[in-house]
């Protein structure tokens, strides 16, 4: 009888069955060990899977935290109104303000901002990508373009060269007028390409740059990265588009450097820059010439002369002097320095005139097309044509602010500044009717009105200035 039948009968009778043969015990033990091994393996695999999943999620979280731009193609506009300083202009009541200041605007928002509306003068509107739109000149130009019915989209990286809160306030003002300002960098070639492909831009107004003459002594690489590499990035993006936009960009009066002829004409030599800033702007003009020649790009360079006015740059002399006068702090003047101070509204009219008269890009060159009468690179001075002693400018500020400045007059150091600037604007007058109309007295009055309102200054509470003159001022007056 089979062994298992005997075991069943024994169990039925309550008799303990005899132990199985030795080889069966060994087989049973092997099976138990194998089963335990499978359980252990399954548990280990489960733990390994959970650990791997946790590590992956942690890496994704850290990657998203540090490199959000690589995981998303959406744009980030300027900050929400709640993060803007309380001394900004009131937020718009329109819905566009909320949409255009969102953290992730859609392409439809960008397209809406880029689309021209009906022009007041009855002409065909243009669509302009404005780089440096949250900057001083960029914000004013964007507002003027939008006011006359043109499409405008801004681009700005909101860097900390001067207070980003002022740039955010300008962007808030632009958004209240329906202008989208994208938080991005001109050296991001992929971003520029997506923008120029997504919207039907007819023009690029390239105003983004690292400004300031003396700051170059501390951070020279910033000037090369922005004013040289950044310009190449913009021109590359424009040149590679099937429908190339015309490019108008900001050069500078500083390219005249140590030129001693006056007034400065576009035909004067510009091969003796006095600062690294000037050298990068001069390099930009040479680069622009190459892109105009090779790619058939329509390019216009504008040499600005000491632009000032409301919403200006805090690092500019007139702005810094106003703050020091209000605070009772001393100011340093360079003996004999004269500047061709140009009011912002006059410069804006010049920028719009250059945009309106820019010819179409023709393509060609290495792109394989056939050039059709490529227009040469255009260069224009945009100045006021009336140089003023910097000391006189300070005197106007003293009168407007109701307080004397504590002046310290020194000899001009070799830090990149030049003794004087004086613009000849006959070429711009001939080609697009540029004629500055704002005197320094009127322009500074407009600036001080904005300055006092923006910073909530009560001029009546400013303390009386000291009557003691510095030795430097006495010497300078003799």
Per DSSP, what share of the residues sits in E-state strands of 2 or more residues? 5-15%
Overall form: globular
Please tell me the overall pLDDT.
80
Briefly note the structural class of the backbone. Answer: alpha/beta
Question: What's the tally of helices?
Answer: 16
Catalytic activity: UDP-alpha-D-glucuronate = UDP-alpha-D-galacturonate
Membrane topology: Multi-pass membrane protein
Family: Belongs to the NAD(P)-dependent epimerase/dehydratase family.
GO molecular function, one term: UDP-glucuronate 4-epimerase activity
Break the fold down into its secondary structure elements and pairings.
Elements: H1 3-12, H2 22-66, H3 68-71, H4 95-100, H5 107-114, E1 127-131, H6 136-147, E2 151-156, H7 164-176, E3 180-183, H8 189-198, E4 203-206, H9 220-239, E5 246-250, H10 276-295, E6 299-304, E7 307-308, H11 317-327, E8 330-334, E9 338-339, E10 342-343, H12 344-357, E11 378-382, E12 388-389, H13 390-401, E13 406-410, H14 426-432, H15 440-454, H16 471-477
GO molecular function: UDP-glucuronate 4-epimerase activity
Pfam family, one: Epimerase
Catalytic activity: UDP-alpha-D-glucuronate = UDP-alpha-D-galacturonate
